[in-house]
# Entry
Amino acid sequence: MHERADAERPDWLTQQRLDVGRRIRDARLWANFSQEQLAERIGAERRTIVRIELGITSPPLDRLLQIAHALGVLPASLLPDA
# Structure
C-alpha cells in the first residue's frame, strides 16, 4: 500500500519531505536534544521523530508547530525554501 503512494508522489515532493526531515534533525542537534528527548517534549514516540527525520512521513502542521516550539525555532525555518 505504501509503495503505491510513494510511486504516485512526485519527486519534488519527496525531496521537500526529506529536506524538512533534515532541517528538523539539524535543529534538534543544534538544541542538543536526542530523538527521545524531542519526542517526550512533544508527546510523541521516538519512532515518530525517526520517521519524520528520515522523510518517511510528513509531520502534520500541529506536530510541526510543536517541534518548532520545543526546539526554540521558527516553524518557517523547518520548511524548505520556496
Summary: The helical segments are 2-8, 11-30, 35-42, 46-53, 61-71. The longest helix spans residues 11-30. The chain has a mean pLDDT of 92. Residues 10-71 form a domain with the 434 Repressor (Amino-terminal Domain) fold (CATH 1.10.260.40).
